[in-house]
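Pair request: fold both.
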Amino acid sequence: MANREKNKKTLLELVKLPENSCCADCGAADPDWASCTLGIFVCLNCSGTHRNLPTVSRIKSIRLDFWDDELVQFMKANGNRPAKNFYEKFVPVFYYQPHTDDCEVLREQWIRAKYERMEFTEKNTERPFTAGVYEGMLWKKGKDNGQFLERKFVLSVCDFTLKYYKEDESKGPKATISVKDLNATFQPEKIGHAHGLQITYCVDDHTRNLFVYNKNGQEIVNWFNAIRAIRHIYLKTAFPTASDRDLIPWTTRNYLKEGYMEKTGPLQREPFKKRWFILDSLDRKLLYFKTQLDAIELGVVFIGSENHGYSVRECVPKGTRGNKWKCGVIVETPDRQFVFMCEQERDQREWVEVLKTVISKPMMPQDYTTEANIRRRR
């Protein structure tokens, strides 16, 4: 007969081991759940996905559920490290491995890819997102009425482009986008769909957005990793001496912060207008749009380093016109002063904090080119 307290104590000792102290799937600290069929420890969020894989994974609480002696011995014989070595042995270097704060579809498909489809247990397995061409249908937000319409997209390695087509493909692509500045980030809340993906690119130094989704979770994550794959190939071609460690952060990236602030003009006498801001920390750009689902940016502020005359601070501006919000942020650049207003003090503190993070980092050689291009636009 199993000793309930003894087995519970054993499990709690196992989960404290360094190799088991974080979720096997998303890295969250102090997991309280375990898959007694896979021999891994997972967090509450990831345990939910495992419950949807009954033929693969059986989930139990390490604190509340009853454990047989045989299951405890199985957990002792396995654990997160051996599982990682087996199920993640051949994960492509560009493949995105989700973290605890990533959206549900990324975490779910990562778990399904590992344990249900076993995509990474064999070397050189052909995957749809690693082919030279990846194509399919995505629902894209329309420019005029804001409705999402189904469009064909084609991602091609041979010319490093992403193309999409309207109904009549014989007329050629509606747009041909270079992958040189391509980025993709999941935005389910902003887009209003659990599989919402924001694709960003540059045209004549101006940033543009595409908002898309696919009803199938596996398909949208395949698209995301296909973009990462082609970006990785492009970066390896453009920077042949750079290591994967240096290139991977540039394949795709999440933005450091997004949200509404009010903005005034260069003379600071113009009325304040509400704008949606995005801080791209890698490109050192503070982009602003009329709304959060606008396709084309209205403007951009380059965020340089402290050594080059950039700074940020909280403020309470006086004599401003038209502003409804009172929590100010001032960004000083070598050329001018920018004044932004936040709705709440928490937003103000967060914007100052993330801007200071960018300003504290030294500028890279490519940043000087970005700075010069933005200055030429004014």
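--- second member of the pair ---
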Amino acid sequence: MVGANQTSMVTEFLFSGFPKFEDGSLLLFIPLFIIYTFIIVGNLTVFFAVRMDAHLHNPMYNFISTFSFLEVWYTTATIPKMLSNLVSEKRTISMTGCLLQMYFFHSLGNSEGILLTTMAIDRYVAICNPLRYPTIMTPRLCAQLSAGSCIFGFLVLLPEIAWISTLPFCGPNQIHQIFCDFEPVLRLACTDTSMILIEDVIHAVAIIIAVLIIALSYIGIITVILRIPSVEGRQKAFSTCASHLGVFLMFYGSVSLMYLRFSAPFPPTLDTVIAVMFAVLAPFFNPIIYSLRNKDMKIAIKKLLFPGSPGWLSWLSV
């Protein structure tokens, strides 16, 4: 039985997922800083390009701009602390800081997952029921769905974080990861850790439901697209879904690797690679996917970055 005076022993956690300072972790700081800068600039560019171009004020692009805005804060919840740890010999985070990092990182991730599911349903209605689409997906409903995704994403995690905050942590305090996450933190609790399995099941069910909804939406979309008689019509229909499908596969692919393993241990290096994949690389590629695969987006970005630009910049809209 752990006494009250012992449960307050751990006031901070130590990250052990980083390479040692003397082993060249400083060399990782520059590429991670460049990636983080690109994520912020790229996603804000997409966000403002949509907001400032009246031609893109429709549900699909509004969802994309909201997703890009969430990506900015999703990465800010973890990467700045990673950068700080890479140039510090003391890789620690306070108990409160750890709880806040978990809450904001996963709340924003939940919001993005719900929004990706909403975007899949939006594409399904647009392609499978185009005549009724304008009356179904109204600007008001679009705003409600975007706001609802964010609100639900933040509210649903509150009970879990509140529960973790009541657990006793009396040592050890090493988190075998590069940021605070549920499983590595719960393993340090001085109490029955059987709740980890329940946590894994809850996360797995949420991920599987979202993936099933998106998969069923795309099965319906592909079925309708294949019935389009002209090749040009099929290509145009596929192009409107390609960006979302790419982001969906990257987001849920990396999340599934991380949270559908039911506490099965991975080698520490592989654990870190998977964490970097969904916390850093997925947000890095999202603005590239949305801009390079979309002519309208490229035109909007050109207008935003180069207002009144000369003809030699016309390649941006090709």
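Observation on the second member. The longest strand covers residues 12-15.
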